[in-house]
Amino acid sequence: MDIQFESIEGNSWTYRITLIVLAAFTVIGFLATLYVIDKGIWVTGMTNRIPWGVQIVMAVYYIGLSAGSLVISGLYGVFGKLEYKPFARIAVYIAMLFLIAGLLSILTDQGRMDRVFIQPFVHFNLQSMFSINPLLYSGHILICVIYLWALFTERKKTTKVVATLAFGWAFCVHSGTGAIFGFGARMLYESPLLPAAFVAAAMASGTALMIITIVVLFRITNRHVDDALILWLGRFLAIILLVVLYFLFMENAYRVYVVELREAALYYLFGGWHAILFWFGLIIIGCCIPMFILFRNKTGNSVRWVLIASIMVVFGILCERYVIVLPGLMHPPEMFPGMLVTGTGVPEGIAPYSLSVVEVLQALGVFGAIGFLFVWGLKAFKLLPNEAKALV
After folding, report:
1. Packing angle between helix 54-77 and helix 194-220, nearest 10 degrees?
2. Distance between CA atoms of residues 255 and 182, nearest Å
3. Is the pLDDT of residue 318 over 90?
4. Which helix (H) or strand (E) holds 318?
5. For the chain: N or C, fewer Cβ within 10 A?
6. Domains delineated in the chain
């Protein structure tokens, strides 16, 4: 299967304007971060009760997209499906960029940014997922770089080995991220299923994102891609969504069943504005409607409808990340089980949180930086094939 990879010319006004807009987003986010450093994190709307905001939501989301994007490259690198070789380079490049985006989101959320680069590696603690994950993230980026090198140099044996390592490492990365929440943190976080649920959601969002990326990029650059390749990915996405729904059902059934967690579970499912994001954003828009589209014979065999379903999945998993991070912080932790707290310096009850303009600007800055690197990379590297055909 002879595939020629090319870089885009990048001489059009559309290309240049896109780079300028993304660069402007980056500068705006950088200035917003400088403002937070100068004034303090309180300007973001976060409090002692709500120490994580939208930047951590986006960090978890980006890390999931990174891990999920490697699934597409793994179809060629690990499982040897030659028809998906045309997408391997762009998938690995996107995976690397999204992990960088996740780390940038975490960085801009910190009050002391200098500690992010030093503390996790100087004071290592195997009993802390916060200590383990920086090693997983940095290792993931390094593996992606080696993986890209193997793909660019057409080293088949090296590609097979590194692809398998990258595929397994991606699972570890997102399992580790899920463990931050699931391993005994808060009442609405604690669940041994959460790391596995994170992996399933990452595979869904990453696959959906790659479908969108492939269809859009091939069309705007006038490259041919066989519909059969996209339709197979759509069927694969539909199966992953079934797994996502299964984990969502089991997690929440467990919370409702356990007496100690029941009150928190009811708050999570029905007690706040986040419940709208859960039921309508995640369940209906992000899972049920896409599954109906993808499993239905007429729409499931249409690239246009597969693209629409993928867009809905990407949005739905973003809602899933939001309703995992914030409601778990807003709901009051039970500091002393079985005891009555008569006085405290921390406000009790449901903690309020409102999205601030500064956080939005910071998130826009991270998106701009990664978007700039992606668009620039299309011109700097030979990431796109001249065509993508299904094997007969």
Report:
1. 70
2. 13
3. yes
4. helix 303-330
5. C
6. 5-239+359-388 (1.20.1630)
CA distance readout (Å), 384 to 57, 158, 184, 190, 223:
31, 21, 44, 42, 9
Higher-scoring residue by pLDDT: 296, 70: 296
What mean pLDDT, rounded, does the chain reach?
86
Global pTM? 0.90
Query: Picking from 174-188, 197-211, 298-312, which range would have the lowest pLDDT averaged per residue?
Result: 174-188
- Is pLDDT of 246 > 80? yes
Q: What is the dihedral of CA 117, 118, 121, 122, to 10 degrees?
A: 180
C-alpha 124/C-alpha 133 separation (Å) is 11
Which residues are 6's β-sheet partners?
384
C-alpha dist (Å) from residue 117 to 103, 106, 217:
11, 11, 35
pLDDT value of position 335: 59
Residue 203: pLDDT band (50, 70, 90) is very high
Instruction: Reduce the DSSP state of residue 388 to 3 states and report it.
Output: strand
Q: What are phi and psi of 12, to 5 degrees?
A: -80, 160
Higher pLDDT residue, 110 or 372? 372
Tokens coding 151? 């793909």
| pLDDT of 127 | 67
Return the structure tokens found at 259.
């007496």
Run of H or E including 290: helix 289-295
Contacts of residue 104, Cβ cutoff 8 Å, sequence gap at least 6: 366, 369, 370
- pLDDT recorded at residue 1: 57
DSSP string, 163-206: HHHHHHHHHHHHHHHHHHHHTTT-TTT--TTHHHHHHHHHHHHH
Neighbours of 41 (CB within 10 A): 17
